[in-house]
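Troubleshooting log. The previous run stalled partway through. Resubmitting the same two chains, unchanged.
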Amino acid sequence: QSALAQPASVSGSPGQSITISCTGTSSDVGAYNYVSWYQQHPGKAPKFLIYDVSYRPSGVSNRFSGSKSGNTASLTISGLQAEDEAHYFCSSYTTTTSVIFGGGTKLTVL
Amino acid sequence: QVQLVQSGAEVKKPGASVKVSCKASGYTFNSYDINWVRQATGQGLEWMGWMNTNSDNTGYAQKFQGRVTMTRDTSKSTAYMELSSLRSEDTAVYYCVRAITYWSFDLWGRGTLVSVSS
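Second attempt completed without errors. Output:
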């Protein structure tokens, strides 16, 4: 099973908004509303950002939001800040009761 | 403090096995499944499987079936992941993660680097 497709990199200026896409198939992203997003700074463990497509865990800034349409999920970060520069990974539950991750997207804050 | 503390880095030769431990603290260990996720240097995340810490039931990614074993010792609030028949492609950081659902991981260990080299 191939990884979910994410753009390798995105960039934006402070204060702007960016969106990262995560494309799967009808056997994963399209099958359930079970998409999660994680943020990873260099040398650190990933941090839980979004679950069930659009829900934020306690403590996560409301500048992070998630959505889904068909087989593609999206993470939007509004009001970009320098500290948002990191790698972002999506994941989805699959119809074979496994979890699949995206390849990751490097966000650069210009 | 709610955390997962993993064992230290390992260096193994091809064909050997490695067993990584993950000690939970600050919460009730058997209230959440533990999953294992690995990440090769500069690469993405790869899910390896899950273990129900209450029932000891497990489920492994097809790629690792036959090579991975996930166990736990509830008296020590510790989960273990053993990977056998190691090859160079298994060189990666291995994370234990707490699952709040089958598909969402809210708490991550710091990771254990496993290096496989002859």
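Takeaways: Chain A has a mean pLDDT of 96. Chain A has no helices and nine strands.
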